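Predict structure. Input: DoxX family protein, 127 residues.
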Amino acid sequence: MGFLRHVPAVLLASEFFIAAIGRLVPALRTFHGRVRRKSLLTAPALYPMVPFRDDVRAHMRYVGAWLLLTGLLVAIPATRGSRVTLGLVVFWTGAGAWSQWKCGMAYRVPVFNMALGALVFWLEQGR
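Output follows.
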């Protein structure tokens, strides 16, 4: 039963890695294109939190790097229970939910990931 408590962390880390890959790897044309079209709408809504409003390419690289770092922190067992990791998870999933809500998009995935991040933190605190 001990290995089951790692499942939420693996799922959350995978979500962050997939989101980062969509922003950082232009070789995946279809996936990168979908994320780029979405970023064209959400980048202006994230401007106070992300320092790029008009340069969507820089916006995608900046957010992708942070999502990759957050995914790494969630994937490493020694750091997944830290408050810094929880803060990054809550910040980036909250920013995603807020910007998607502001643009009229569905925002259930970021909200689910935020809840998953809280579950991972809670499970790691109860070791």
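The chain has one domain: 2-125.
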